[in-house]
Amino acid sequence: MDKVALFGASGVIGQSVAQALQAQGRAYRVVGRSKASLQREFGADPLAEVATWNPDDADSIRAAARGIHTLIYMVGVNYWQFHLHPQLMRRTLDAAIAEGVQQVLLIGTVYPYGRPRTTPVTEDHPREPHTFKGRMRKEQEDLLLAEHAAGRIRGTILRLPDFYGPGVDKSFLYRPFLAAAQGKRAQLIGPIDAPHEFIYVPDVGPVVTALMDEPRAYGRWWNLAGAGVTSQRELVKEIFAQAGRPPKFTTFGKGMVRLMGLFDPFMKELVEMHYLLTEPVLMDDSALRGLLGTVRKTPYSEGIRQTLAATRAAAVSPAPAATARPRPAP
């Protein structure tokens, strides 16, 4: 089979895609900055080839893409460095095209849609981001779509909502899982009663591999909705209930987030994205389901059960407030 490279493999989405490829018996290359980290996460899989890269070095990027048919792009940046997204995409596309990579699948976000005009949001919704982060993500997408239109490489985009799951510490739900497992009070960013959706991370990998193998997928973007519309409050209640404890939490509003941003660069940047909690982008993925036929989504109750078990087993230490963010793969 044609070889696949996972750029940004160390993240939770990369690990989910790797697991899906492993289940299919397909060889793949994991690409990241730290060889030690990649070896620790993927070294036990004989199907995995470890490759490091320096995204500031064109030759390094070309070496990481050499001999690859499909490139899955999941490269993250610090929340306060979103200006790097289009820069890194430009360098990666140049290297991929030079090395003869046939296709690129970008893991995208809801940011480029901007404020939702409809509920739910389909792929026909305008991309009119009103935030800097949304504009940077749109610019990143436009670079890929332009190369596809020019016939230099095939490109497609899979948009994800917020996510959660075992090992996912950059999620609105991470602190509730940790607090419920340890019998403590959770800190939430509100409002927590607004409609919201989450995807269980292990469900993403099979969708990615199915999409990349579908020739009709290229030249556009696709929505992957969560496992249903819910709210932070409802999920937190379920998390604590499964832990056998009454829910205990404190909610921080936008004003407190802004105040915390005086001392925390992540929280400072989160302020402009707070609209996603008051004007949520709830996606319609009927087009994706029509294309692939089957898109499995773990029910929230089962995803919570598995994540809570993993949280307890890992005995994870509390993360700083900066780990809470509105999107998975920024």
From TrEMBL:
Q: Do you know which Pfam families this protein is assigned to?
A: Epimerase
Q: What Gene3D superfamilies does the record point to?
A: NAD(P)-binding Rossmann-like Domain
Report the InterPro entries cross-referenced here.
Epimerase_deHydtase, NAD(P)-bd_dom_sf, NAD(P)-dependent_oxidoreduct
NAD-dependent epimerase/dehydratase domain location: 6-222
- Entry protein name: NAD-dependent epimerase/dehydratase family protein
The organism encoding this protein is Pyxidicoccus parkwayensis
Taxonomic lineage is: Bacteria, Pseudomonadati, Myxococcota, Myxococcia, Myxococcales
